[in-house]
Amino acid sequence: MVHPPEPGYVGADYTLETLADPATFAAFCEREVALSQPGTPRPTGWVSGTYLWMVDDTADGPQVVGRISLRHELTAWLLEVGGHIGYAVRPSARRRGHATRALALMLPIAAERGLDRVLVTCDEDNVGSRRVIEANGGVLEDVRGTKRRYWLPTRPTHPPQS
Question: What is the reported pTM?
Answer without folding.
Answer: 0.80
